[in-house]
Design goal:
Layout: H1 2-14, E1 21-24, E2 33-39, E3 42-48, H2 57-68, E4 76-80, E5 85-88, H3 96-101, H4 106-122, H5 125-128, H6 138-145, H7 147-157, H8 163-181, E6 186-188, E7 197-199, E8 209-211, E9 218-220, H9 223-230, H10 239-253, H11 258-285, H12 296-306, H13 313-322
Antiparallel strand pairs: 1-2, 2-3, 3-5, 4-5, 6-9, 7-8
Helix pairs in contact: 4-10, 6-8, 6-11, 7-11, 8-11, 8-13, 9-11, 11-12
Length: about 350
């Protein structure tokens, strides 16, 4: 993309990084691309988000807000929002995912992440919530849950999902989410899991936990981010760690009702897992990123476990009728000849 390369060069020149070395890094599930930038011993991270596909302004708003609250979000070193370019503080390479793979203490890393949430959730909502952040309302929650019948079901059945089936699915989720929507609100970072958490060198306490990928933050229930951390779509979290971290959070954060929090945790887990199964399928069908399909069996395992909770009985009945066990699997990659049934 020669035109894009010229835009990036002009941006770096204007930001004081003329003739910098720019090295691409691994991408993610979005349309954003990341590059490490080096010049005269200094290092920074370049976020390249094509403005026709991504909007960097929410990232800037939430990053500045989190930093104002004392959390380790990357500093914005330079920004050209209209062109989707940000130059960010570089936190290094020590994601929690890499540290865990290298043998770091699972308990220590997860407890640090939970401590961040406890600190955030102890703040009054008026202080915790970033300006311009949308509510995690019924419409948004339902739209996300619908990604499963809209993308996954056509991929495994070979036919589009009918309007009647979508309507009954929406109805059972509306019932299940009713109590969630009545809970107190806080800032929800949305993708709070080990891939998006970093150990920042030479920082201590909560400052040591670097936060990434929070541009989709919303105003919603406190249980969501803890659930996202402990019911990870891409990594098996041991039952012991999950149980210990949930108990640790409840003891330290002291929510108004531990029973309500536990119920919210499970209902939101089921909603997220349904969403993720749909998203991973869409990444294959629409975006030609088939690598995410390998995580779908894990996510089905998590969803099946959540559906056993009494609060999800109507949702579980829907799945029993319309998604039998033999369909609860990863679809074949689109490249193998599967048809595109969703739009």
């Amino acid at each position: 993309m020669p035109d894009r390369a010229r835009v990036i060069t002009r941006f770096l020149d204007a930001a004081g990084w003329k003739s910098a070395e720019v090295k691409p890094l691994a991408g993610d599930a979005s349309f954003r691309r990341y590059h490490r930038v080096r010049r005269n011993g200094s290092v920074a991270m370049l976020m390249d988000a094509p403005p026709d596909r991504e909007d960097v302004r929410p990232f800037v708003r939430v990053a500045n807000h989190l930093r104002g609250l004392g959390f380790s979000a990357p500093a914005i070193l330079a920004a050209e929002e209209a062109n989707g370019l940000l130059l960010l503080e570089d936190f290094g390479d020590d994601t929690f995912t890499r540290l865990l793979a290298a043998g770091s203490s699972e308990t220590a890393l997860y407890q640090l992440a939970v401590d961040v949430l406890i600190h955030l959730h102890r703040l009054p909502a008026s202080a915790a919530v970033a300006p311009g952040v949308p509510p995690y309302d019924e419409g948004r929650l339902l739209d996300e849950a619908l990604l499963l019948p809209d993308w996954f079901l056509p991929a495994v059945t070979g036919r589009p999902t009918s309007d009647d089936l979508r309507a009954t699915y929406t109805q059972v989720w509306t019932e299940a989410l009713a109590d969630i929507l009545a809970q107190p609100r806080t800032l929800v970072l949305r993708d709070f899991h080990v891939d998006n958490l970093m150990q920042v060198a030479e920082r201590q306490g909560l400052d040591a936990c670097g936060l990434l990928d929070f541009q989709d933050a919303v105003i919603g229930p406190a249980a969501y981010d803890l659930m996202s951390l402990l019911e990870d779509a891409r990594r098996d979290v041991t039952p012991a760690v999950k149980g210990d971290m949930l108990a640790y959070y409840l003891a330290k954060a002291n929510p108004p009702s531990a029973a309500s929090f536990a119920r919210d945790f499970v209902v939101l887990a089921a909603q997220r897992h349904a969403k993720v199964i749909g998203i991973f399928t869409r990444l294959d069908r629409r975006d030609h990123k088939s690598a995410y399909l390998r995580h779908i069996p894990r996510v089905w395992g998590l969803l099946n476990a959540a559906l056993r909770h009494p609060a999800l009985a109507p949702v579980a009945s829907w799945f029993q009728r319309h998604v039998p066990p033999e369909l609860r699997r990863a679809p074949a990659p689109a490249s193998s000849g599967s048809s595109h049934c969703a739009t």
